[in-house]
Amino acid sequence: MTALPYVDGNMLDGPLGEVFAVDLSTATARCAHCGTTGPVAGLRVYSHAPGLVGRCPTCVEVMVRLVRAPDRAWLDLRGTTFLQIPIP
Amino acid sequence: MGIVTPGFQGRPRAEAPDLPPGQYLTPDFPVLSAGPTPRVPRDTWEFVISSETGTEYRWSWDEMMALPQETPTVDIHCVTRWSKLGTTWRGVSLDTLLDGVDTAADYALAHSYGGYSTNLPLEDLRDGQAWLVHTYDGDDLPAEHGGPARLLVPHLYFWKSAKWVRGIHLTVEDTPGFWETAGYHDYGDPWREQRYQGD
């Protein structure tokens, strides 16, 4: 049996562009720590910090971190099991 | 019309002699936090240094306060670009705490009540460069500034001076902490403007 071929990350541009072009405040996220599932808009975001830190409203663990440099950004979603995004 | 434009007075803030590049001076003490402020009673507070072999060295509040105390006056530099000069603290030198700790580790991961962490080379905690402080400007360190006790490592950006510090893991391998895993520089020298990875 032949292994399935893969393509490089450029293939993701279209699909990820569709995902991250939407308004994430209407998305639903599941906390990787306690399983609470709710709107991204319901996260507790700590912005007086070197980056943005979004925490679960139930267990207060970190679900998302976004660090913005002048020419780069880092998005850490390890605390989020999934994002559910309305796409008509 | 004169040659000198009247609006060009004073020198740019970035050229202030005591400030690292890209920093501005503030008379305030801004409060930055990545989460809710932990409230840690002194009677349950503890500080633990754990070596790479798992040996733990533990201090209660009273035991920590019984150690020799120092009163460093230092400049502090936040990666969000504010600097504050001549801040006075009181606490225990990390040299005192590390004295007697048997380790061959090269790295330290400071961890805090509330879940914060930050990494730095162990040598940056030695030789009079770092303190466990409980007093700021003559008063008990307020919780919003990291009380009852925080790390003070003023030669690095201030995110390395972990608030609400609970202990330090000594490790053979470098283990990036809370901000270091999210884009910030592993070392964070303000004089070399090491803000982000790759700087």
What features would you describe in this structure?
- Chain A: Pfam families: DUF6510.
- Chain A: InterPro entries: DUF6510.
- Chain B: This is Molybdopterin-binding protein.
- The complex is a heterodimer of chains A (88) and B (199).
- Chain A has 88 residues and is mainly beta.
- Chain A has a domain at 40-78.
- Chain A is 9% helix and 34% strand.
- Chain A contains one helix and seven strands, in the order αβββββββ.
- In chain A, the strands form two sheets. In chain A, strands 3-4-5-6 form a four-stranded antiparallel β-sheet, with no helix packed on it. In chain A, strands 2-1-7 form a three-stranded antiparallel β-sheet, with no helix packed on it.
- The longest helix of chain A has 8 residues, at 13-20.
- Chain A starts with 12 loop residues before the first helix and ends with a strand.
- The model of chain A has no long low-confidence stretch (mean pLDDT 85).
- Chain B starts with 23 loop residues before the first strand and ends in a 28-residue tail after the last strand.
- Chain B is built from two helices and eleven strands, in the order E-E-E-H-E-E-H-E-E-E-E-E-E.
- Chain B has a domain at 20-26 and 44-172: Sulfite Oxidase, Chain A, domain 2 (Alpha-Beta Complex), CATH 3.90.420.10.
- Chain B has helices at 61-65, 94-98; strands at residues 24-25, 46-50, 56-60, 73-77, 82-93, 107-112, 117-121, 131-136, 139-140, 150-152, 165-171.
- Chain B is mainly beta and 199 residues long.
- In chain B, the strands form two sheets. In chain B, strands 1, 4, 5, 8, 9 and 10 form a six-stranded mixed β-sheet that branches. In chain B, strands 3-2-11-6-7 form a five-stranded mixed β-sheet.
- In chain B, a hairpin with a 5-residue loop joins strand 2 and strand 3.
- The A-B interface holds A 46, 48-51, 53, 55, 60-62, 65, 67, 69, 72-74, 76 and B 30-36, 79-80, 115, 159, 179, 181-184, 195-196.
What labels would you give this structure?
heterodimer, A: 88 residues, mainly beta, four-stranded antiparallel sheet, 1 helix, 34% strand, globular, B: 199 residues, Sulfite Oxidase, Chain A, domain 2, five-stranded mixed sheet, 2 helices, 11 strands, disordered N terminus
